[in-house]
Amino acid sequence: MEHIQLPNTIEFFEGNDSNSGKILITPCQQSYGTTLGNALRRVLLSSLPGAAVESIRIEGVQHEFAAIDGVLEDVVEIILNFKQMAIKVHGDGPVTLNLSKKGKGELTPADFDKNSDVEIINPDLKLMTVTEDREINMEVIVGKGSGYVPVAEKDTKGLPLGTIAIDSLYTPIRNVGYDVELTRVGDITDYEKLTVNIETNGTITPKEAVSQSTKILMDHFALILDSSAGESPDSVLHVEADLTPSEIESVKSAEDEAEKEEVLEEKEEKIEKKEKEEDTKEE
């Protein structure tokens, strides 16, 4: 097998603020710059855990297309402002935040009642502008997740009357881009230099984001490697048989290969039976 050049220089550079930075990886074998850059970008944007506003309830408002007396913005614009909140949730969540304020002026995340389970990174963000001397009462639910979850994919049954569920962008990444340039190694000029630029919402540093996304990729590749090498029975079972936790424990406790095979065969029979039942229903 031909030797593949591995990068020998990996450097991280901070940007103009703590929310931006870039990582330099060089030299990469030809086409590996794009391979690594694309994989990192996809995972950074879609798979890192974060927190976001999941629903809001404003006293006197029944739906998202309403207007609020004495408030400059309509509810749709207010929802867009809430989506810009950068939040850390300490614990499993979800967490309820309450706000009650009277008088004219801007309402910001800093006006919410203090909650030890929630840390708001941008407390000065404008949520709405009150133009009359009136009281605003609202309740906001924030939770943990990853990626982007639209309202259509949420379970909104049982929400209190007047609660407006909103699309949630959980990812802490605001923007990711990568650039691949040719670089020289000795007399060879077609190696590549990969630069990945990252901007976060402040709940995580770019360096931490790269570390987490790299670990996610490594976990997946390790699973494939162990499965193909036959070194990780649990991983193989997850992939090939979709075992439940109790079934995995049964295999772990099996004394010999015959018992393990028996557990797998039983699982396969269950899957086949379920598929036949589904086919019968469709007919």
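Next protein, fold it too.
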Amino acid sequence: MRWLGGDESDNVEDRRGSGGGGLLVGGGIGTVVIAIIVMLLGGDPSEVLNRSSPDQATSEAPSGPQADDDAAHFTRKVLASTEKVWTKLFAEQGAQYQKPVLVMFRGVTSSGCGTAQEAMGPFYCPVDQKVYIDLSFYDELAQRFQAPGDFAMSYVVAHEIGHHVQKQLGIMDKTDAMRQHMSEREYNRVSVRLELQADFFAGVWAHHAQGQSIAIDENDVESALTAANAIGDDKIQEQTQGRVVPDAFTHGSSAQRVYWFKKGLKTGDINQGDTFNSREDANL
């Protein structure tokens, strides 16, 4: 992946080195296991933290901002690119895109959805409408998930921005309202469609950014597809449980995530991403 220009977004809170008070809040072995799964899926940390017990363990937060300056500049560039694309697409629909804030941190920090920890991976908090990312996740993406490359990292950021787009369009508020009247199994299905749409929106961003702010080739696309494939619910369950339980899916299968990202990348048409009513991925 090659940048066509060096614009960086200013809508960033850099909390690296702040230490977040130096405390990591844990809730026992069960919470740790769940937190690991949430990290792998890229999920909302409040689902874990708000149910955890108040046991505490002290941990010294990493303080090396210099070590990941390149990752910080890279993240700012990706954010700037998403801002340009979504501002334009919203304007074409007669709407105004409200740019989110991206919070970079190391170790632990606070969010509107609860305490954010390194183990949870990148996430979007709809309460404060901010994206949170511990920059060490980029190393995790390359080493644990075997998805190195700038475009794979861009996909991760663009997916979380996709959730902000859903918030702006009112989609996230509607699904939250549905949650009150559903069983956990029923809402899991809704959650899957929400996540797949965020994958689609990540593809839409890449479609419009190509040739404007980024230049990508087949190898770049492959790295993003590898990332999408690696964090599917089926792959994660197989790794952590040794078996696949579709009713417990919250993010979609690997094949579904790849499908919707590719569709967004190919079409660039936001109107083709109604994952809630479409069943074109039913057999994946």
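About the second fold: The first strand starts at residue 2 and ends at 3.
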